Amino acid sequence: MQIRIGEKIRTLRKQKNISQETLAAALGVSFQAVSKWENAAAMPDVVMIPAIASFFGVSTDELFDFNRYETEEKVMEICRRSWEIRDEHPEEAEKLLREGLKQYPGNDIILNNLLCVIPVPERAGEAIEICRALTEGTQYDDVRLDAWRIMAQAYESTGDTSMMKEALSHIPEIYFTRTQLDAEMLKGEERFEPAHKQKRLSADWLIDMLLILADIYEERGEGDKAAAELECAVRVIEAFREDFNVAFFTGTVYEKRKDEIPEIAERIARLRA
Q: How many Cβ atoms are within 10 Å of 85's Cβ, its own excluded?
């Protein structure tokens, strides 16, 4: 693997007619590091690979001479397996994704999924480093935006408000999602999966916003309004009690959020007292 990527970097660099020093400066590393890569004495750090691919205008699969379609299928299978266990067993999900990165170093999709199982603030620095690599190197717009989102959350968890706002500034404000439009505009069975996904996203977002508004009203001293928002959040969670699960989720909205109800009920009782 080292020999193949080293040869590929050398080939791409010569095609651009640039020196090792120029490449090193663009990537923020020493020219000795580039020399080691090209001579198979070392391999680029996993978070450097998207940036290298981006610099040369190729995908990470091309950088490693992987078959793109075969790789995509195998990568998605690795990610699907991690989705199934990441809520209850994040450490096992991380191990699975790390093994995937050994097979497909620097793969944007695996790195993006890895961010979902790295705990913050405990490992915020590591998450931010991966996010930074993806924002600078990925060819996928959705991965780049997700990396900015997770970076903002990581900075927020460390109390770095300035960097949190800087990360947020890269995310455009939009009022629709691709999933929503797929559900609305596709036909027949093609609407099934996006409709379920958007239902789940919308429910979670609505609950989260109600809880945030309750916090704001409570901070303002408007206890009745805070309690009203919390009561609405409970009703939304309860509304999904009879909902059923589908294959691409590990649980319903109710199953995932019912444990929040007792704590919310305590807040309501305190506010109404």
A: 16
pTM exceeds 0.70, yes or no = yes
Q: In this predicted structure, what is the pLDDT of residue 67?
A: 66
Tokens for 65? 């001479």
Give the integer Cα–Cα distance in Å for 28 and 18: 15
Q: Which fold has domain 68-168?
A: 1.25.40
Long-range contacts of 238-245 (CB under 8 A, 24+ apart): 240/203
- Helices 31-38 and 20-27 pack at an angle, to 10 degrees, of 110
Predicted confidence (pLDDT) per residue in 232-258, tens digit: 999 999 999 999 888 777 789 999 999
CA distance 184 to 199: 12
CATH number of 179-272: 1.20.58
Distance between CA 49 and CA 46 in Å, rounded? 6
Q: How far from 59 is each of 68, 120, 192, CA to CA, in Å?
A: 9, 29, 31
- Element containing residue 117 per DSSP (H, E): none
What whole-number distance in Å separates Cα of residue 222 and Cα of residue 231?
A: 15
CATH topology of domain 2-44: 434 Repressor (Amino-terminal Domain) (1.10.260)
The reply to whether omega before 194 is within 30° of 0 (cis) is: no
* Closest to 71 (Cα-Cα) out of 104, 49, 48: 104
